[in-house]
Amino acid sequence: MRLLLQWSGLRSNTRSSFVMPCASQTRFLLLYGSQRGQAKAIAEEIAVKASDHGFAAEVSCLSEEEKYNLERERSPVVIVVSTTGDGEPPDTAINFVKKIKTKTLCSVHFAHLHYALLGLGDSNYSNFCNCGKTIDKRLGELGAQQFYASGYADDGVGLELVVEPWIEGLWDALRKFVTSAMSTSQKDTNNHVGDHNAKNEMRTIESAVTDLNLHLLSLDESSSKDESGGSCNIVAEGEVLEASLTRSVSPLSESSLNVPALPAPFLDVELLNELQQDPTLLKPPETAHQVVITSAKQLTREDAVKTTLLLEMDISETPLVYEPGDSFDLLCPNNNSEVEELLLRLGILEKKHHIVKLQVKPDTKRKVSRLPLYIPEHSSLQYIFMWCLEIRAIPKKAFLRSLVEYTTNEHEKRRLQELCSKQGFADYNHFIRNPSLSILDLLCAFPSCMPTLSVILEHLPKLQPRSYSAASSIYSNPGRVHIVFNIVEFPPCPERPALRKGVCTGWLSNLVLPILQHSGGQMMLPEIQDASNVLPKVYICSRPSSAFHLPSDTAAPIIMVGPGTGISPFIGFLQHRKKQREEHPDVSFGETWLFFGCRHKDRDFIFRDELGRFQAEGTLTHLRVSFSRDQDDSTEEVKPKYVQDNLRLNAQDVVRVLFKENGYIYICGDAKNMAKNVHEELIDIFSRELQIDKLEAMKVIADLREKKRYLQDIWS
Ligand code: FAD
After folding, report:
1. What sign results for the dihedral spanned by CA atoms 187, 188, 190, 196?
2. Which of 95, 208, 350, 653 is most buried as measured by Cβ atoms within 10 A of its Cβ?
3. Tens digits of per-residue pLDDT, 242-289?
4. Distance from residue 129's CA to the centre of ligand 1 (Å)
């Protein structure tokens, strides 16, 4: 059988087409508001690209108010801002939003301002991109004008879908804006002849604005005869193959490609002598507190689809306090064997105890280049990979583009180029983004790719702590906090053949499982007298919620919607209410409704006994539970399957509680499906029961939300 090669190689050298930044560049102000660093990273990317396009971005965080002054700003302003929580501004943008919302500002306050805004959000949350939209609307109300249409990028489907084309279009918009501003100013000054600077500046821009962001690669017929193989594309003649991570099919395999510009390297990395102390011990930030896990319980039966664990932590030795509704950030390491596998693949495993010295390349072309703050000085290689880098992060296209430079096999190189190209967009989503591939998965699939350590450190983002809602009340459990979570599992797929657990939940389950004991279907820690030396310890930081708390008026009725682990904060609410009722028998307490849902009554109905007790003594007035997989096909009766079905069955009470009795509704749990479905069901309920159309019903929800009586704590 003759073998054919599926792809062709490359003709052009993609490194060659860079243009040096121009000596005289047009300034624009670039502001970002970031919670977890994404808006900041995108702003930095814009700043880097700006210089390729003849512009100079002056970058500031929205919170650095001393560094910019919008009241006087005449240059174009670009804002990149994320949204957090339930449509709230990131911490770094709170003051800015508050300031521009000041009611006394007049309608021409920002009439001099020209801006473009890129909002980041997640459409799984109902207040999608709310912070960006609020800023956009308010700037408009204050007379500012957009020089480029706003972009709203959705993390639910991939930020890059909007971010990449938005950045691509920004340069043209900036150029047009600057050109027209200049011609206006030249007319205004009556064709002032001595303005050499402005003309020179325009010339500089025009020569520099050739679109360098995307480089066109064409196919090279000759390299298609390269039969060196590699892992990628050898296809038997006559065989019809489907595309895979390493294999492309026509038309992509025959297409010319637009690939992103090669990100300029900016880190010099040196490995020094070996570190003597234990390289795996966390150097925690000041806000973190070490706490002991005093008990661990498996809440689900062995045959449940998901395993749910409850952990109790002792916070009595720390200054930490919380209210029901608050969360805690937990600092977790990457899986040690995965780290070792990655270091082995990078050829540096034997150096894992060596201290890493980082420096910014003195000659880097990257505009915003500084050492990653999340990599502490004097850390070992192993420490950095365990505690500082999100090694599971889905590699971005810029990362793939960099990997091309370190790949020797022509077919693998071509495939990596396809995957980061405009044309390979669908393949990137299908083979990398959807199965959540990591850098290690990619390196295993592309064996001739051997990136340097500096490339890896330049591209892997910070390992984020994971948040967990308090599932207890400190009032009834002094010095203790409970958290409840499902052990996340990524099932095997063609691109990643082994099952993988979530970084944090996998780690936590390993941490507690060896010391758990079986006890009547539940697992518990053994009773140990002085357990502090044997019990696992973790670092946590407080993450208070701004609004997701019980109403201060105890007489106000509340509706809680929390299927699965979404019940966590409501257990805290109910424990708190129980204690309040015991201690204040004369006070009046409003009705409490809980809508809970799970798969099977007998396998994953978590907190079943505790809820029964809350009901029996009157803390919980109404409990509605739905079981999505316990449907009985033999009867005509249709049982509620999901929480929204029970909301529908109790529609009149829901409306009474919210509108006649000024009650509150709280929704907690899965953002992907549940929160959206509940939101849609509430629109239906309100429009039916209040006899208004759907648009009006949506306004009713917006109004409840504004009054902080429709509250969400959802996660994906
Ligand atoms: P990771 O390794 O980070 O993986 C999780 C990611 O993988 C998610 O993005 C998810 O969408 C994706 N994913 C999951 N399964 C698959 C799959 N099969 N295939 C592909 N992708 C997949 N969680 C709780 O359980 N209980 C809580 O009380 C809780 N409270 C929270 C409160 C807040 C304020 C926030 C922001 C989040 C909360 N979370 C809670 C979520 C929690 O922080 C973690 O995200 C979750 O536990 C997973 O962490 P991990 O490191 O184990 O998973």
Report:
1. negative
2. 208
3. 899 999 999 999 999 999 889 888 999 999 988 776 666 778 888 999
4. 20
